[in-house]
Design a protein that fits this description.
3-stranded antiparallel β-sheet, flat, 150 residues, 6 strands, NE0471 N-terminal domain-like
């Protein structure tokens, strides 16, 4: 992870340009992390459907989360998205549940996330990998494995 040193900007005047840059930085940060845009209670499945801006969704069974399991149907229907799209909230009970926490509590969802991360990281290529691939190409490609006589 890249460390960024904090800068003090107490004396920077708030101009239209400064505000525009701040809004741009906030928008870039928002698109790079988990932000739900909708929540709906599905009575037939006794589950909460959490939707995202790109029209994808995740369904969380209420019974899998103790905090949700104790809520009435009416309370489940009044759940909202809060904390910038990162939590499910029920203000009447002062209840705030992290969406990332719900995902991490599900072994199948975590296995899926690990697979996605591994696939994405496997596509990354460093300069060293590119140079090794070029060198192997000049030699006629990857060397064949030698069969071991046994």
């Amino acid at each position: 992870m890249k460390a960024i040193k904090a800068r003090e900007r107490y004396d920077e005047p708030v101009t239209t340009d400064v505000v525009a840059r701040a809004i741009e930085r906030g928008g870039a940060r928002r698109t790079s992390s988990l932000h739900a845009s909708a929540v709906q209670y599905l009575a037939d499945l006794h589950a909460l459907l959490v939707g995202f801006a790109d029209h994808t969704a995740i369904v969380f069974p209420v019974a899998n989360t103790p905090e949700l399991a104790e809520l009435s149907r009416d309370e489940l229907e009044r759940m909202t998205i809060g904390f910038g799209g990162s939590a499910l909230c029920l203000d009447a009970r002062d209840l705030h549940i992290s969406i990332a926490g719900l995902v991490s509590a599900s072994p199948p969802l975590m296995a899926l996330a690990a697979t996605v991360v591994a696939a994405r990281n496997g596509r990354r290529s460093s300069e060293a990998k590119r140079q090794a691939a070029r060198a192997n190409g000049l030699k006629g490609g990857r060397p064949r494995k030698m069969a071991v006589a046994g």
